[in-house]
Design goal:
Layout (H helix, E strand, L loop, with lengths): L1 H21 L1 E10 L7 E7 L2 E7 L3 E7 L5 E8 L7 E9 L2 E8 L4 E7 L5 E8 L9 E8 L4 E7 L5 E7 L5 E8 L12 E6 L2 E8 L4 E7 L5 E8 L10 E9 L2 E8 L22 E7 L5 E8 L9 E10 L2 E8 L4 E7 L5 E8 L8 E6 L2 E7 L7 E9 L6 E11 L5 H17 L5 E6 L12 E7 L2 H8 L2 H10 L3 E12 L1
Antiparallel strand pairs: 1-28, 2-3, 3-4, 4-5, 6-7, 7-8, 8-9, 10-11, 11-12, 12-13, 14-15, 15-16, 16-17, 18-19, 19-20, 20-21, 22-23, 23-24, 24-25, 26-27, 27-28, 29-31, 29-32, 30-31
Amino acid sequence: MKKAIFILALFLSHVCFAQTSDDLMLYRKDFKNISAQNTVTVTSYKKGSSDYVYVGGFGNIDVYSLDKEGMLTPISNHELYKQKGPARGMVADNINGTDFLFVANKYGNVIETFKILDNGSIERVALVEDTEDTHLAVAITLQVVHMKNASYLFVGGLEDTPGLSCFKIQDDGKLTHVQSMKDDDKLHTDGIIGMYVHKIKGKTFLYTSGFQDNGVSSFRIYDDGTFKNVNNISDNTKDRFLTGAYPVTGVTLGDNNYVIVGHRHHKYYKRSGFIKKTDFVYHGDAVSVFKVNKKGALVPHSILKDDENTKLQGQTRIEVVSVDNNEAVIAVGTRDDEAIQLCKLSEAGVLTPINYLETGFSIYYGLRSHKIEDTNFLIAGSFRFDFGKVATYRVAPKIEREGKVLRHIVNLKYKEEASQKQIDEAVNIFLELKNKIPEIADIEWGVNDSTEGHSDGFTHCFTLTFNDEHAREIYLFHKAHLDLISKVGPIIGGVLVMDYWTKK
């Protein structure tokens, strides 16, 4: 009897996962202001029983704690070397008992090492500047590689003389140069914006994207931190999607090791002279899956091509959300579609879309997955200079919203010194949002007429209707809405916001 119950429970657990993994959705939990000019890079770290988030942009790094509900609490902010940046390729790790945050200061041409303190805050302990022998100018991507007797930091970027560099990480966080390999016609190390490490049967392999080279490369890493090229795969105009190769991640499912590569196609770049090879051909956007063979080389395996049902234009970050029952949930952040696309990768290496959320802001490398207890979160930030926020999302089974609309209720009270003219102008600005944000299905408003005495001083009520989750996100972070907050904010004495779903 007990055996039968166990088998039934095991069966149900598999069924439950299949249902949730096939129909997951993102639900925003929180958002906070940042002190940097924008959000370029986001990483997270679990230190003891606490969880921390690090957000880097131009000039600053912001530190937050993250609780199990997905709520962020600001801790501190820290100035980058020479107030440059933006902070790129941030990675936190433990080196022989000490927690460090490594930061690529893109235009400062340095790698900064910060010690992570007990409260999650950071203090700079080391700085490595670029030399003629290294490739730290316009540094973008960092990858820590732990070997048997030491740990190493690999660095890639977008400089004029590109390549891949390795540094040994000392116990105090200082970096000692080990080897640099200059880019050539064979390697894909011009514009490394993504790196990933696989450890396979005692051997360590590093995989890089070449944004300017339009391809991916494989490297074998040895115990002393030296490395050699294994193989290279270039873009084509038929069945490969590596023009502007960008984010790189990987996962092991069963006996199969996969590397997942995204790209932001060069057609999306308008800056004159930035793209080196201008004879590119656009044949669509897709996420590429490569299988790793016994020698650590990449072998093209499958693709997920963008269509009218997906949001894959301008992929800038790919995160593994979870791995269970030999399938993985993958999140793809996009700059041009301004969305997070959830996908499932099967053990056979086939990538299929699940659901997406339009975030209302472009994601530029700033996406990070983080798990607290049994809950999976995604942390995202925007490259928009007028936004200046970081948001958290819970990844959970999709809630059925068919046949329903979302009511967004905004109750306002105005300061006593606010004139009637100012209040009338504020109302008109609010109502004008309908013409500036197409995602607002309807707006109605009125002045409080209750005589019960429970209005708590609130006088004006605005009811906005949205047809789906995407519309609310776009409205919340739309420039017109942010402008309204900026203009009307000084005369507002209080705000009460409530949302609910109801039948159409």
